[in-house]
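EI: anyone free to look at a 247-residue chain?
SC: sure, send it
EI:
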Amino acid sequence: MIWVFDSGMWWLVTLWYLKLFLPNNDFLYLGDTAYMPYGDKSSSFLETRTFSCLHWMFENWCKIVILACNTASAHSIRKRQTMYPFKKVLSITLPWVEAIIDSKYKKPLLIATKSTVTSGIYEKALLRLWYKVDSFISIQWNWLASLIEKWANELEIIKKIESYSLQNFDYDCIVLWCTHYPLIIDSLKKIVGDDIDYIDPSFKASEKLPLYLEKHKELWITLSWNKTVTYYVTWIGYWYNENVVVI
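SC: here you go
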């Protein structure tokens, strides 16, 4: 089965995309809801939580993990490769970098959490692929994921976004670097307009996963296809229903 790991639970954006491109596959989803949001946590805390959850998943039927949380990915990438050299833990980092390069964008505006911005993962990823941008703007929106998880109304979100005066910055695309952020694209368009490209890393990664699995037959043959999804959380909170299991 394919595991999907994120800090939150409510909207499940990455899982929705994955089901769109792999509609027949079985998925297991783990939301670390007891410690959500991740965006304002320290690097050591994020590393501890990420590896604790990864360990639990690998102990429970895991063949491949999609690390949907960008903040968790940013603070675990080096150690992850060392700790699990023979495990498949895929983050959604590389696909958005490839999207920037493919479209030849030179002035990306990245909207992310504080912990993700301070990790420098964006700049490092672009440098590894030898791609130089003219400018690189990062804006920290720690508050947004919590508002979305709590069903904040659109007017509240728009008012908050407007305070950042995004229309005054010089950029040629907007990267929504949190799995919650694609949910406010319509709100952003009301402020910034729809003549700018909004890059959604979760969508880009999900779009490429079928091709990745095709190339890795050793993974493909271990998966199951019953169109099921099982949900796990570390705290039940307001997500309670009979299909959610607390670990």
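EI: The two ends are 18 Å apart (CA to CA).
SC: 👍
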